[in-house]
User: Which sequence fits this backbone?
């Protein structure tokens, strides 16, 4: 996809402003182009959301916002966004930033709750305090996963508004429009990354009864392999944990908990906790970048 670029030439209709935008070869705009392309390529590389794709997306997105911060600190950018038409663009970006911060904050809260439930599962499986205690924790986790899906629908609705808002940022001024398109594209890519995180967090449990046991068996096996290979990028720890808990719960109800299945489940819970911790740290860094970006936009519009 052709990246939107900044034009160094002044249109005669707007030459009185004497605004000189950085060209496409400018280091700042070039870095933004590179980061945007990297983030778009993730959608092709990772067919389904995974811890690897989420961490890669968050890392690249933070780099993109670092470059965006440099762009917003440039005097030519500040001059363009503080003019009459630029203020309309900036206001739209500010509204988008609120939505992104809302979604980011909700995901951080969701990650904290996931860690609490995972730690509760780890604790009860270590202690093996009794079938009733284990069953209660399993039920709490299953109910929490249902609430997560409900929260995911709310977040996706917010992000849908963000995408629709991003398309309205274009203005008649061709130079300012060029700048607005790039900023809009950053907003769109950010929303896409956030959508992939939400999809990863609420990965559904298969419901097809006819092939459920064979599928669960494959997932448990793949989960064990994924635990042995910490660098496997396409691992979806939620999928493995859900499958393992399902099998453990089903067999345990009939024959008692098998020690090998318990150990496998504990390994997978540990892998999930580690992945969630990494995503949590990456999301914290991105959250701070989003706050800085919003502060820069507020500073531009106040002058």
Assistant:
């Amino acid at each position: 996809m052709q990246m939107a670029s900044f034009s160094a030439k002044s249109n005669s209709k707007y030459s009185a402003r004497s605004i000189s935008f950085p060209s496409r070869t400018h280091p700042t705009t070039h870095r933004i182009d590179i980061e945007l392309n990297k983030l778009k390529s993730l959608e092709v590389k990772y067919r389904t959301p995974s811890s690897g794709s989420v961490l890669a997306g968050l890392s690249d997105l933070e780099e993109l916002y670092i470059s965006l911060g440099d762009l917003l600190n440039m005097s030519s950018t500040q001059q363009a966004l503080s003019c009459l038409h630029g203020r309309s663009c900036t206001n739209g970006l500010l509204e988008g930033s609120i939505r992104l911060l809302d979604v980011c904050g909700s995901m951080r809260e969701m990650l904290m709750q996931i860690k609490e439930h995972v730690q509760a599962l780890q604790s009860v499986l270590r202690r093996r305090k009794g079938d009733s205690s284990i069953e209660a924790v399993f039920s709490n986790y299953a109910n929490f996963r249902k609430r997560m899906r409900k929260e995911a629908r709310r977040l996706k609705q917010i992000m849908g508004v963000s995408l629709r808002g991003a398309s309205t940022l274009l203005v008649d001024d061709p130079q300012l429009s060029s700048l607005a398109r790039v900023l809009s594209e950053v907003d769109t890519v950010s929303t896409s990354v956030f959508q992939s995180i939400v999809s990863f967090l609420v990965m559904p449990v298969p419901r097809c009864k006819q092939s459920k046991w064979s599928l669960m068996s494959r997932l448990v096996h793949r989960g064990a392999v994924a635990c042995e290979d910490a660098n496997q990028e396409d691992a979806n720890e939620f999928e493995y944990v859900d499958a393992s808990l399902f099998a453990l719960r089903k067999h345990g109800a009939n024959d008692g908990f098998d020690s090998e299945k318990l150990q496998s489940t504990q390994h997978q819970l540990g892998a999930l906790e580690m992945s969630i911790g990494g995503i949590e740290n990456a999301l914290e860094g991105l959250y701070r970048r989003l706050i800085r970006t919003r502060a820069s936009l507020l500073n531009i519009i106040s002058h």
Residues 84-127 form the longest helix (44 residues). Residues 1-21, 165-169, 206-233 have pLDDT under 50 and may be disordered. The CA atoms of residues 6 and 253 lie 64 Å apart. The chain is about 80% helix and 0% strand.
